[in-house]
Amino acid sequence: MPARTPTQVHEMFTEAFLAHDLDGVMALYDADALMAPLAGGPPVRGKDAIRKVIAALLAMNPRDGGLETVFCLERDDLALMRSKWHFIGDGPDGNPVEMIGSGFEVMHRNADGTWVHLIDSPRGGDPL
Length: 128
Prior knowledge:
Layout: H1 6-18, H2 22-26, E1 29-35, E2 44-45, H3 47-58, E3 64-75, E4 78-90, E5 96-109, E6 115-121
Parallel strand pairs: 1-6
Antiparallel strand pairs: 1-2, 3-4, 4-5, 5-6
């Protein structure tokens, strides 16, 4: 089921991520989306590059957490959003690791009315 509102993108991301559903997560991105996976790091563009980032995160076996909308400003077919997120998974040594952050996203409404990530900066809202 596609996202019908920008905030549904966050809800559906959480569900797919915790279910280890890579295709479900990727369905929430525009074909030419841009992601800045690390604060200060180079962005990646396009579904193939973003898929590699998400796959690496899913390899950490996320089992608890969520992505919550802090605010959403919509204008026509765009939405500027801020989120807070946390996930618990496994580190390289097998011990539990908690990941926490605050992101900025730009969502885009497609012609069919569905919403997807256009720009995703998962660490964009973290303190400088």
